[in-house]
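Tokens in:
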């Protein structure tokens, strides 16, 4: 069975959830009612969080107001900036949504955008300025499997990483997780994200691993397109792979405001409340009990000391039995006092 940190066990208690929601909403309203002057950069310009948004989204196509736009990372960033009391606002930047490689280049330039989110690596933490708070509370590395019924039955019989090597795994083009799987001797089949569920249904590969926080929401629309797909609720992979907000290297004030706000919101229970209610994350957090999973651990991947510390403090899944020596600390990410 999966080992969860004690605070995580309350995730599945409805009474505690309601208390968290009420407390988080009350604190958010109280702080939102205060008046704060926007922070300014050395050149006198007000700081804003310039966030890329897919040009094909309802907001960018004029079918939705920005206030109605409710993707999880946007709602979490709003929450963090509210709790930070910084006066910093989000400025959405409509564009062809960039690949992860392109997002790195955009942040390094700092002209169009100055904040993105994606999975961390020591190299990315060296190139950019990471906000060391796992935005999905460490559940990105908890990987459940979408598959076909006959494959799911076979999967139920396994108990080890060696057993898992008999299956093939679908991954998107350029996803860092593909390399993690291959490094552990697992067979990976690459494809474009919007076609992977169809490839799975046609037997091009056996298992489509998706993060705990995202699998149920994705399954709802993928199953509509491919009714043969199922979620296996018995076996899962785990490796610590947090997703962070990253900001441009010169955006220290923006970095500090977001980190302070996230820590305050987490302490207040508002981050967990958002995970349970958001349309992307809520279906999994409300309906899939991770404590019932048989967990297969992959060897710990190299991470910075800041990431190891953040996962120990904020991650829901207990990875404290991983003892691999961490990578050296990154230079750009000293936390605010």
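Residues out:
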């Amino acid at each position: 069975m999966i080992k969860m940190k004690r605070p995580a066990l309350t995730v599945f208690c409805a009474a505690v959830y309601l208390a968290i929601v009420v407390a988080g909403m009350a604190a958010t309203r109280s702080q939102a009612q205060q008046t704060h002057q926007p922070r300014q950069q050395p050149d006198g310009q007000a700081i804003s969080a310039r966030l890329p948004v897919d040009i094909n989204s309802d907001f960018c196509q004029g079918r939705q107001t920005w206030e109605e736009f409710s993707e999880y990372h946007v709602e979490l960033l709003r929450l963090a900036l509210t709790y930070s009391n910084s006066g910093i606002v989000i400025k959405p930047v409509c564009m062809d949504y960039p690949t992860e490689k392109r997002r790195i280049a955009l942040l390094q330039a700092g002209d169009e955008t100055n904040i993105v989110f994606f999975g961390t690596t020591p190299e990315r933490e060296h190139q950019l300025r990471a906000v060391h708070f796992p935005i999905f509370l460490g559940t990105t590395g908890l990987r459940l499997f979408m598959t076909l019924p006959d494959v799911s039955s076979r999967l139920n019989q396994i108990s080890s990483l060696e057993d898992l090597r008999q299956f093939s795994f679908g991954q998107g083009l350029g996803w860092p997780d593909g390399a993690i799987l291959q490094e552990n001797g697992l067979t990976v089949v690459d494809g474009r994200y919007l076609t992977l569920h169809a490839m799975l249904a046609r037997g091009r590969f056996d298992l489509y691993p998706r993060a705990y926080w995202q699998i149920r929401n994705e399954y709802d629309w993928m199953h509509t397109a491919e009714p043969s797909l199922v979620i296996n609720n018995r076996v899962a992979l785990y490796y610590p792979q947090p997703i962070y907000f990253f900001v441009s290297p010169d955006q220290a004030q923006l970095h500090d405001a977001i980190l302070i706000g996230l820590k305050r919101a987490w302490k207040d229970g508002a981050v967990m409340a958002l995970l349970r209610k958001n349309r992307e994350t809520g279906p999994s957090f409300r309906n899939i009990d991770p404590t019932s999973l048989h967990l297969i651990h992959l060897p710990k991947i190299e991470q910075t000391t800041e990431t190891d510390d953040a996962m120990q403090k904020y991650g829901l899944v207990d990875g404290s039995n991983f003892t691999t020596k961490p990578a050296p600390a990154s230079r750009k990410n000293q936390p605010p006092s």
